[in-house]
Amino acid sequence: MTLAEQAYQKVRWDIISGALPPNQPLRLEQLKQRYGVGFSPIREALNRLQSDRLVVNVALKGFTVAPISAADMWDAIESRCLIECDALRRSIEKGDDAWEAQVVAAYHALMLKAKSVSRLPRPLSEAELRALEDRHYAFHRALIIGCQSQWLLDFADKLYVETERYRFPNLRDAAPLPDRDIGNEHQTLMTTVLARDADKATELLRAHYRSTGHILTELMGPLTTA
Amino acid sequence: MTLAEQAYQKVRWDIISGALPPNQPLRLEQLKQRYGVGFSPIREALNRLQSDRLVVNVALKGFTVAPISAADMWDAIESRCLIECDALRRSIEKGDDAWEAQVVAAYHALMLKAKSVSRLPRPLSEAELRALEDRHYAFHRALIIGCQSQWLLDFADKLYVETERYRFPNLRDAAPLPDRDIGNEHQTLMTTVLARDADKATELLRAHYRSTGHILTELMGPLTTA
DNA sequence: CAAGGCAATATTTTCGAAAATCTATGTTTA
DNA sequence: TAAACATAGATTTTCGAAAATATTGCCTTG
Questions:
Q1: Residue among B80, B200, B195, B96 at smallest CA distance from B141
Q2: Closest C-alpha among B194, B85, B90, B206 to residue B146
Q3: Does the distance separating the beta carbons of B47 and A47 come in below 8 Å?
Q4: CA–CA min distance A76, chain B (Å)
Q5: Where do the CATH 1.10.10.10 domains begin and end in chain A?
Q6: CA-to-CA distance for A6 and A45, rounded, in angstroms?
Q7: CA distances from A215 to A111, A207, B74, B197 (A)
Q8: What residues of chain B have any CB closer than 8 angstroms to a CB in chain A?
Q9: Which CATH code for domain A3-65?
Q10: Considering only CB atoms, which chain B residues are within 8 Å of A83?
Q11: Separation between the CA of B58 and the C1’ of D30 (whole angstroms)
Q12: What is the DSSP code (8-state) at residue B26?
């Protein structure tokens, strides 16, 4: 893997996880030392992150971590509903046995990790958070991967990352994951998907995202200007 | 404007217009001379174009112009239907007077240019093509700009560019724009939008994109493997 | 004659310095 | 005192060379 790719992954994670908070100026010299690489890989990483909308860049004035706001969160959530619901519908229509197997596997991997993590003391370590995060992503991606549209999958990826920026900071110090997350919504969703009930599945997915949004809106509260 | 930004615009246009054909290897040294800038701005431009899916990059093996295929074209078209129809619906619901005025203005600007261009000899000059292209983009963007979702607008932009890659090569040497393009579909669409008939407008938009797709599929014919 | 390895070439990736640009501070002047 | 200008500092942008890596062609060897 090239240095630029490594830098991209690291900065991306630091932004999602909140180590680099919203609106933080990203001085090139500083990042160069922090990640131990030269200017070029850093610049390349920052450029890629810009099209992920994780950093913003004004010409000749440098990069900063993209701001967050309740409005942007809801924009991302609603856009995600639109795109993933359509992708899920197509997956359910076109998905074969291998796809079903992948969904089941991803679900169980997520649940296993979620349960083991729920027994750990807070705050969770960076490694545990990352592992949980990866499996959560894998599950949601497995649902829609049968849609046979690279564009929709790309868009879903971008929106997933964006929404994680809001979900994540609340995960680290949160009490053990509430039953809502572990048992109910994900399982019901998977069952409905496997039953090939597209209407109900998309409705569940939409409700899942929106309820998460409402909870986060509560938690953000006065912080929405951050 | 920075050199990187200029390089980005130029390479982007050269790919859309077909001057740099699909699968063409993009040697850095070569591009450096072609656009008269150093390595860094070129690399930055190429990186941005990669996330637009106009170029592909395999690590340590360089950049190439992204391939095209009928399958990819239809993926882009159908994704565009999904996203723009939803955005159009929201525009129609939320758009104010200023939005309506913008739609009307963009439509007339497009028609004016289309009519003047239709009287010009073929093949059209690069400048005329660019001007027509800009107004076509402006019209379609005006329709959905009232949707109040930056994410949907971003996605629509990406898909617009992608579909232009297929439409454009047929424009340069084509006979004067057929009546279908000039008079009928765009005007009917605008009228319906201004009448705030969301159901009919989205159906027209969908039909507009799909019929374009069918025509292009015909024209591509055996070239789909290119 | 084919297959594997080695050297030569081509290309990308990375780096550090130089140039260009912006921001902040202090000085002068009306 | 306030506004305008000039200077100094900080930061980004750009460049060209050096390092790292892949590809190609040739030679050796079985």
A1: B80
A2: B90
A3: yes
A4: 7
A5: 3-65
A6: 8
A7: 21, 12, 38, 35
A8: 1-2, 5, 40, 43-44, 47-48, 50-53, 59-60, 72, 75-76, 78-79, 82-83, 86, 148-152, 154-155, 158-159, 162
A9: 1.10.10.10
A10: 82-83, 155
A11: 37
A12: E
Determine the pLDDT at residue A226.
37
Give the integer Cα–Cα distance in Å for B187 and A176. Answer: 57
Separation of alpha carbons B141 and B145, rounded Å: 6
**CATH number for the segment(s) A70-225:** 1.20.120.530
Closest to A74 measured CA to CA, from B161, B151, B178: B151
pLDDT digits (tens, 9 = 90+) for B167-218: 988 777 665 554 455 457 889 999 999 999 999 999 999 999 999 899 899 8
Which among B51, B59, B151 has the least Cβ separation from residue A79? B151
Q: From CA B168, how far away is CA B173, in angstroms rounded? A: 10
Out of B59, B151, B152, name the one closest to residue A5 (CB): B59
Strand partners, B147: none
| Structure token digits, residue A16 | 């999602």
Residue B1 has what pLDDT? 80
Cβ atoms within 10 Å of A193's Cβ, excluding its own: 28
For CATH 1.20.120.530, the residue range(s) in chain B are 70-225
* Strand ranges (E), chain A: 25-26, 55-58, 62-65
| Strand C-contacting residues in A 25-54, CB cut-off 7 angstroms | 37-41, 44
List of chain B residues with pLDDT < 50? 178-179, 182, 223-226
Q: A37 with A7: CB under 8 angstroms? A: yes
Q: Residue at minimal CA–C1' distance from C23?
A: A61
